Amino acid sequence: MSFRFPDSFLWGGAVAANQVEGSHVSDGKGLSTSDAQPIGAFGHPVERVEGDFNIKDVAIDFYNRYPEDIALFAEMGFTTLRLSIAWTRIFPNGNDAEPNEAGLAYYDKILDELEKHGITPLVTLSHYEMPLSLANKLNGWASRDVISMFEKYARTVFERYGHRVKYWLTFNEINVTIHQPFTGAGLPVDVDEQTRYQAIHHQLVASAKAVKACHELIPDAKIGNMLLGAILYPFTCHPNDMMKTLEQNREWLMFGDIQVRGYYPTYMTRKFKEMGIAIDITEDDKELLKETVDFVSFSYYMSGCASADPANAEEANANMLNMVANPHLEASEWGWQIDPVGLRYILNFLYDRYQLPLFIVENGLGAKDVVNEQGEIEDDYRIQYLNDHLYQVGEAIQDGVDVMGYTSWGPIDLISASTAQMSKRYGYIYVDRDDEGNGTLERKRKKSFSWYQSVIASKGEVLK
């Protein structure tokens, strides 16, 4: 390619509070919905009992070890770190009269450390967690009352950190509520479609309120949405497969269309009618939705196919989604198909659709890393995966797509969101802990550590 990424391009990694911090009830923190999912986002929520085991209760102990970890990120050359704030550190029950100062002070220290190393924070307000008490007492986002609680939380952190955080995201992979209602919105896993889409509407209104508040309180900041980028190709060129692909892509594009354009697309009017769904959308809601985002961010791990005749196609193991396997692609150990060109495709696809800057805020390879006899981790498979995807990002930039940056998922090994496993590793930094919680938590640089360091230092020129 022989291409140098723009000087303004932000290089880094992405983590989530509930997957790295641990200290799940320390310093006044309340329980979150993630704390009630000991086997990951695919699992049914459980009641927490004192002394029970949830690997996320300690996670990788980022809560206490953040100075060491951020120093390692800086050593790689990170110019940005995507992280999330745990809502329950700030408002333990969601509806508390006053914020928890200990929680606010903790993130002050994180931001101090990032500032010391010259790393720009990109902060997600809600990353697969909300106060568990709101899920238990109010049925999560099914209650319109949660909108004002989220707005209060958002305004609190904007006021506290607005002078030092200039990039924000509202909800992580907001479209996941369609597929995993408890993970996405604190809803029962068997919730009906009417309730599910009403809860989604409340989240979209809350997101718009956060955008409005951010623009008011931090005029020089940028705030974006975040989609689970689930681009689908037609399984064949049969017209029925083409229409099926259009319909299934719209399931996740709806969230981008509303947050970028400021209103529900007409294709959803027909869908709601055919599903027998009547969303309660007030006139105030319609005005609020016009508060649109400044940029579009998304995760991308894999593509898939859509078919009007599933009997002729094999289902793919996917990131909480329903997809048909692409016979032209290989897959990871967890069955996620690998499609680097798909990243270039989705970048062009989204830029053509929205004409807003794009930010790739998750992309990576989960794999079972092995420490060899020399104590090293030779993760060439991860290097190959990331190289091939970043090469396609460079191609998309040359296509004319405005790409703000790239934060690979899991720059340090963390707890898998989908399976709550430690053995599904993504990081450039190895953490000594297994799925049963055993290990020293010692950090160790993998081979990919120095590779990513060279990519950032060369602004992508070493990619091939």
From TrEMBL:
<comment type="similarity">
    <text>Belongs to the glycosyl hydrolase 1 family.</text>
</comment>
<dbReference type="GO" id="GO:0008706">
    <property type="term" value="F:6-phospho-beta-glucosidase activity"/>
</dbReference>
<dbReference type="InterPro" id="IPR033132">
    <property type="entry name" value="GH_1_N_CS"/>
</dbReference>
<feature type="active site" description="Nucleophile">
    <location>
        <position position="362"/>
    </location>
</feature>
<keyword id="KW-0378">Hydrolase</keyword>
<dbReference type="Pfam" id="PF00232">
    <property type="entry name" value="Glyco_hydro_1"/>
</dbReference>
<dbReference type="InterPro" id="IPR001360">
    <property type="entry name" value="Glyco_hydro_1"/>
</dbReference>
<dbReference type="InterPro" id="IPR018120">
    <property type="entry name" value="Glyco_hydro_1_AS"/>
</dbReference>
<dbReference type="InterPro" id="IPR017853">
    <property type="entry name" value="GH"/>
</dbReference>
<keyword id="KW-0326">Glycosidase</keyword>
<protein>
    <submittedName>
        <fullName>6-phospho-beta-glucosidase</fullName>
        <ecNumber>3.2.1.86</ecNumber>
    </submittedName>
</protein>
